[in-house]
Amino acid sequence: MYKNFKTALVLSLALLPAASAASVQGADGVTVNVTNPKRVVALNGTTVELIYRLGKQNTVVGTDVTGTYPANKIPSVGHWAQLPAEGIISLKPDLVIGTADNFATPKNATLVQQLRGAGVKVLVLPATDTGGLDGVKTRLNLLSQVYGVPSAANALTRSFDTTLAAVKANRPKVAPRVIFLYAHSPSDASIYGTEGGANELIELAGGRNVAPFKDVKPLTPEALVAMNPDAIIMLDRGLASVGGLEGALKMPGVAQTNAGKNKRIYTVDNSIRWIGPRLPEFALKLAREWKKDFAR
Amino acid sequence: MTVSPTSLPAPAVSRQRVRARWALVALPLVLLAAVVFAVGTGAVHISPAQVVSILLAPLGVPALAAYEEQQAAVLHAIRLPRVVLGLLVGAGLAVAGTAMQGLFRNPLADPGLLGISSGAGLAAAMSVVLGIHLFGTYTLPVMAFLGSVVSTAVIYALAQERGQMNVATMLLAGIAVNALCGAGTGLMTYLATDEQLRSITFWQLGSLGGATWPAVLSAAPLLLVGVLGLPLLARALNALTLGESNAAHLGIPVTAVKWAVVGLVALSVGAGVAVAGTIGFVGLVVPHLMRLLTGPNHATLLPASALAGATLLVLADLLARTIVMPSELPIGIVTALLGAPFFLYLLRQGRKGGRL
Questions:
Q1: Cβ atoms of A280 and A204 closer than 8 Å
Q2: Which of A63, A90, B46, B307 minimizes the number of CB atoms within 10 Å of its CB?
Q3: Where is this protein localized, as stated in its record (chain B) (predicted)?
């Protein structure tokens, strides 16, 4: 009898967070009441990634073009800068989760009104391009409230901190001078400035972003030579688009920098522009590579 | 070039009149069918019986078919404003294109020549990149509209010669101002962040996806002024095909007519561009198609173009929002993909028949 009671108590405690409705306040100040959502449209790849990490991937019924990691077959509702209201509603979501930067475009501001007007709940998470790892943790906590799984979020936060400790231990002694090169083709590339995901990554991994501006600027070969980075980071996709390492070294200006002379070109996953749960892993990878390459 | 009716043999004229009469009967029916089809089709499934039930519900009519609350909300808040906006913008673009071709006596004229699209584009890009928030949520459409009116006014002022508007100068001024606005937009895209760049690009491709009732209602009066006002100038536009001095001899106040046409075109197209972005080819293709169907008489050509333009855009938007469900295509891509090959076909047919 007592044992049964105990089991029942444990069970009901375990079910408690899932059964009770959560009131979650979004970054736009709008509070959303959710009870264990079954059908979620998760806009922005990092939202999808965080939901996977919480073990709730089965609830995701739609995403945008950025929701490609982990590899999945979730239907896409299109480009994140131009999302269709009716397309999202047709997936019959209990909840649409987007991020503030997702809804910053003029078109998507109307989208939020349209979705809410049609009775669809929309939770706006804080932006993904600022706030670094703390921002990721904030979004993770909001999502864990939505799904009623605080323990999963805590475990994940601890794993972030463990990886972060490893990053700190593996940083290069002397910070390399770094440029983040975002290339579409050999003749079309931009440099990411001292704001956003690329900059967070460089600093976390123990480098110094030597771009002399905040936003994104097209690459000019002479400016690149003048900045003379020791290391250049590119996206996997970007390096492929210029024809691999050989192609990158032939890009105007690259060969004349320290990075070009020593072939110090590093790649990261394509999704780095949105700061997501893999930021510590990316930083650890870079920190280790830099520590090895820049041991002096 | 338009061919004046008198140069055609008599049977051809009467055949064209019959066709014109039929067109004015058939086109509204085609438009009605397109609207019904478009309202009932979309990513969210709503059956015809449900559409009728939802639309009649406010009148107290009992439902023919059960429907969910959300289906009603989608129909009222998302799909209906979208179809209405497509109808108005399509009619506005087509009737403006027809009037421009009549005014310039040139089949290549379209509202873009007046700098409406490029001025709107520059203003929209500036509002996105420079972060102008003067009018809250409506900043981008309001800026786009102001941009179109300003660039039209500039081109118009440049085309003034001793109180007269010179149509040839206007064409050249239009080309120059368009180039200038294009360069300004280019500068804005150069300064834009990645996110802003995508906003501008998608705006330039056009979309009816942002249609909400407030947006539709803010643009509707301006669009309606053009759609209903331009056909009133049909007789004057007919007379202008004979040349300005001949039209003046017929008692047409030529300068006033030119002012009126340019003003109405700028208002209706500017409003359309502001709410839906730049949608190409409707203003160019529809007038040609209707001229083949109804002949060059503006009294039938202008209303026929309005009806056909409305039908075309409602159907193009239906395609845009259904072929890649649950995502959607920018409507400018659809109109250009449909419009350009069709235009080329018309061109070849016209060449053979010696009509264009």
A1: yes
A2: A90
A3: Cell membrane
CA–CA dist B62, B306 (Å, integer): 36
Q: Angle between the B213-229 and B254-276 helix axes, to the nearest 10 degrees?
A: 160
Whether B85 and B208 have beta carbons less than 8 Å apart is answered as yes
Q: Say what the ipTM of the complex is.
A: 0.76
- Pairwise CA distance, residues A262 & A177, whole Å: 13
* Out of B43, B77, B198, closest to residue A90 by CB: B43
Set of chain B residues whose Cβ sits within 8 Å of the Cβ of A107: 199, 202-203, 207, 209-210
CB A91 within 8 A of CB B326: yes
Compare CB distances from B199 to A107, A216, A218 and report the shortest one's residue. Answer: A107
Burial A224-261 (b: 16+ CB within 10 A, else e): bbebbbbbbbbbeebbebbeeeebbbebebbeebebbe
A110 touches chain B (CB under 8 A): yes
Residue B29 is inside which H or E element, if any? helix B10-40
Buried (b) or exposed (e) across B182-201, using 16+ Cβ within 10 A? Answer: eebbeebbeebbebbbbbbb
What gap in Å lies between CA B66 and CA B64, rounded to an integer? 7
**Ordered per-residue pLDDT tens for chain A, 296 residues:** 455 655 555 555 555 544 567 899 999 899 999 888 999 999 999 999 999 999 999 999 999 998 888 989 999 998 888 899 999 999 999 999 999 988 887 778 889 989 998 999 999 999 998 888 999 999 999 999 999 999 999 999 999 999 999 999 999 999 999 999 988 888 788 898 888 888 999 999 999 999 988 888 888 888 899 999 999 999 988 899 899 999 999 888 899 999 999 999 999 887 777 889 999 999 999 999 999 998 76
**Three-state DSSP class for A75?**
coil
Chains A, B: CB contacts within 8 A come to 107
Distance CA A61, CA A260 (A): 44
The C-alpha atoms of residue A23 and residue B175 are separated, in whole angstroms, by 57
Cβ neighbours of residue A73 closer than 8 Å, sequence gap 6 or more: none
B44/A119 touch (CB, cutoff 8 Å), yes or no = no
Rounded CA-CA distance B136/A63 in Å is 28
Structure tokens of A37? 């959502």
DSSP-derived 3-state class of residue A189: strand
Q: What is the pTM of this model?
A: 0.82
Q: Is B206 helix (H, G, I), strand (E, B) or coil?
A: coil
- Report d(CA B117, CA B128) in Å as an integer: 16
